[in-house]
């Protein structure tokens, strides 16, 4: 990865860093060098934080979020609306929703989307556990916060079909013109979705 000019230890550090999303070989080399230049300030605390996370962080048995507690801090928080479940594809989507601060219910992380091309079937995702959660009662609304992709919409349709018999209200995030967006700069699919999702003022 780094070439013969570095030690095997540094080469392994660079190789592992390059496996992270958004870091290619060149970015990984820069990150490794930055860490090596500040061992006390960066590398040692980072190594400690990673060890602690590896030992203590696990997947929530209720919603599949990652946390040091099970159930996670969201599922167990007394102020959350337990009657509303927001279904997201990945933990990163859950974090994005929490960052926006627009939702105070609970979540359910699917772990991806259905994809015939990639061979991802319903059994490969946390869909059965979602249906089980709703079937136990107490849920009034399931919000499908899928990405506006073919696989995301296929997954949303599949979940909607399987929740029909439960009687729970199933909604999805609106798709369309973003706040501050100008029509001239939007793609055709976004404009079409916005037109279909129009509502009364």
UniProtKB/TrEMBL annotation:
It comes from Algimonas ampicilliniresistens. May play a role in DNA repair. It seems to be involved in an RecBC-independent recombinational process of DNA repair. It may act with RecF and RecO. It comes from the Bacteria. This is Recombination protein RecR. Residues 83-178 form the Toprim domain. Keywords: DNA damage, DNA recombination, DNA repair, Metal-binding, Zinc, Zinc-finger. It holds the Pfam family RecR_C. Belongs to the RecR family. A zinc finger (C4-type) spans 60-75.
């Amino acid at each position: 990865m780094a070439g013969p000019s570095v030690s095997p230890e540094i080469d392994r550090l660079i190789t592992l860093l390059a496996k992270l999303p958004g870091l290619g070989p060149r970015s990984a080399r820069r990150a490794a060098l930055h860490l090596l230049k500040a061992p006390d300030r960066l590398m040692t605390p980072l190594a400690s934080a990673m060890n602690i996370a590896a030992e203590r962080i696990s997947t929530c048995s209720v919603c599949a979020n990652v946390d040091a507690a099970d159930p996670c801090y969201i599922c167990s928080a007394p102020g959350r609306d337990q009657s509303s479940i927001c279904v997201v594809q990945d933990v990163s989507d859950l974090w994005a929703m929490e960052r926006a601060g627009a939702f105070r219910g609970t979540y359910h992380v699917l772990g991806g989307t259905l994809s015939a091309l990639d061979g991802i079937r319903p059994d490969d995702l946390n869909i059965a556990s979602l249906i089980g959660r709703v079937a136990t009662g107490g849920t009034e609304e399931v919000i499908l916060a899928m990405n506006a992709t073919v696989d995301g919409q296929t997954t949303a349709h599949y979940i909607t079909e399987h929740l029909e018999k439960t009687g729970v209200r199933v909604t999805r995030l609106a798709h369309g013109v973003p706040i501050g967006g100008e029509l001239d700069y939007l793609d055709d699919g976004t404009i079409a979705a916005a037109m279909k999702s129009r509502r009364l003022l």
